Amino acid sequence: MENLLQKLREKGYKMTPQRRAVVTALLECGEFPSAQTILEHVKHTLPDVSLDTIYRNLALLVELGLVQEIHLRGRESNVFELTVTHHHHLVCLSCGKTLCLDHCPIDHRDVAKAAKQGFEIVSHSLEFYGYCRTCRIAG
Q: Which domains are delineated in the chain?
């Protein structure tokens, strides 16, 4: 939490009670909570908080690279996780199960090609979509 607080300060932002509650929820809600799950958790300490406030804080944290938003195709909502280490995800199109891929498949040559074209890459995210073992067996 302190590392995240320091990064927010470095970028000119304060750790508001709402932001602190969102980060706490991300730490305590298990893997890949939705905004709705985060809202339900935050309401225990800040009962008047709105879903809009949750989304605004998540959007800021995503923009700053402190949280990853994982897009679940065909699902009502996306899920989120604190960015602890750089990694990517495997997402099941059937059940929405999300797994972490413990390495980055982006090749340094791809980054070099972008630089040669005058493009500075500051971050990236990548999700692989397919079907988990359970859904493949059931299908």
A: 1-84 (1.10.10.10), 85-139 (3.30.1490.190)
What kind and span of H or E run contains 59? helix 51-63
The distance of Cα 91 from the centroid of its chain, to the nearest Å, equals: 13
Bridge partners (DSSP) of residue 70 are 79
- Where residue 68 falls (left for φ over 0; alpha for ψ -120 to 50; beta otherwise) is beta
Q: What is the pTM of this model?
A: 0.70
Residue 85 is which amino acid?
Answer: T
Q: Is the dihedral of CA 105, 83, 59, 53 positive or negative?
A: positive
Question: pLDDT tens across 8-34, in order?
Answer: 888 899 889 999 999 999 989 988 899
Q: Contact at 8 Å (CB) between 49 and 36?
A: no
Structure tokens at 95: 């059940």
Residue 113 parent element (H or E): helix 108-116
What residues does 129 pair with on adjacent strands?
91
